[in-house]
């Protein structure tokens, strides 16, 4: 068996490494955007190849490193295969031909099968995964990737991470606050995301805050009167976290969606809520948090005027991993 580190062609090494790690983001970077493959009469693109071909154990490679022989896990069945790669320089693979009418020595086949069935061990982090680890008296951000010797490990980025809860902060709007209003009622709001750490891995904490006010003669006043029943202000909406686009899910998976209802407790009836999203094991890339279809009801003047305020959507994009 030949380890990934000993594959001669860098683009081929990245392809096999990302395939075996089930790292879709790294796999997408290892193939050219117009990548195609053939396997007998079967042909397709990267989005078709990745889900069905889940592991490849190499038993032999050509002198130029562009042809590999071994055992592939294809639709959960082990198949002896020869993969002929057509790299685009050293960066990516633009074409792959797979032949399954090959024979390999029995001992090599048995050894490869052993690694297919039980050699994965604990899943490795995706390349680019970030952790907060302590070195000496300080905490630093570490990134999972390959070092100078080609071995995968946690590499110190040199960036300090003193705060266990906040690594980066994002806001909607990016600066200031958002104001939405009708004739006699106003909502000033802001959505934020703190990208921090859960243990040593990353997590996202969403926070929403809104202050409410009503129009009185010549100015806006905070909701200073004690209200009852339907006059008590509340905000409803939908909070959705969507994952990064991938080869197989171009629009990104919905990680979480929740119907939000938050009622003010007492004057001046601020509206606040917090939600946490663990990110361990999720794909790396750009996530989007949206508070959509938010509506404020109630408030002073609600028995006499329309105090329903429709809020413009809040949207925040933030990157997990590096």
Strand content: over 45%
How far the N terminus sits from the C terminus, by CA atoms, comes to: 32 Å
Order of helices and strands: HHEEHEEEEHEEEEEEEEEEEEEE
The class by helix and strand makeup works out as mainly beta
**Subunit arrangement of the protein:** single chain
What percentage of residues falls in helices of 4 or more residues?
Answer: 10-25%
Low-confidence stretches: none
Total strand segments: 20
Largest sheet: 6 strands, mixed
Count of helical regions: 4
Mean pLDDT: 92
Shape: elongated
Radius of gyration: 27 Å
Biggest sheet, spatial arrangement of strands: 2-1-6-5-4-3
Write the layout of secondary structure elements.
Layout (H helix, E strand, L loop, with lengths): L9 H12 L2 H7 E9 L2 E3 L1 H7 E9 L5 E8 L2 E12 L3 E8 L6 H13 L11 E6 L2 E9 L5 E9 L7 E5 L5 E4 L3 E14 L2 E16 L2 E4 L11 E9 L11 E10 L7 E8 L6 E13 L11 E2 L3 E7 L2
Parallel strand pairs: 1-6
Antiparallel strand pairs: 1-2, 3-4, 4-5, 5-6, 7-8, 8-9, 10-12, 11-12, 12-13, 13-14, 13-17, 15-16, 15-18, 18-19, 18-20
Based on the model shown, name its key terms:
6-stranded mixed sheet, 6-stranded antiparallel sheet, 4 helices, 322 residues, mainly beta, 51% strand
Give a description of the structure.
By secondary structure, the protein is mostly beta strands. 12% of the residues lie in helices and 51% in strands. It is built from 4 helices and 20 strands. The strands form 4 sheets. Strands 2-1-6-5-4-3 form a 6-stranded mixed β-sheet. Strands 10, 11, 12, 13, 14 and 17 form a 6-stranded antiparallel β-sheet that branches. Strands 15, 16, 18, 19 and 20 form a 5-stranded antiparallel β-sheet that branches. Helix 1 (10-21) packs antiparallel against helix 2 (24-30). The chain is elongated.
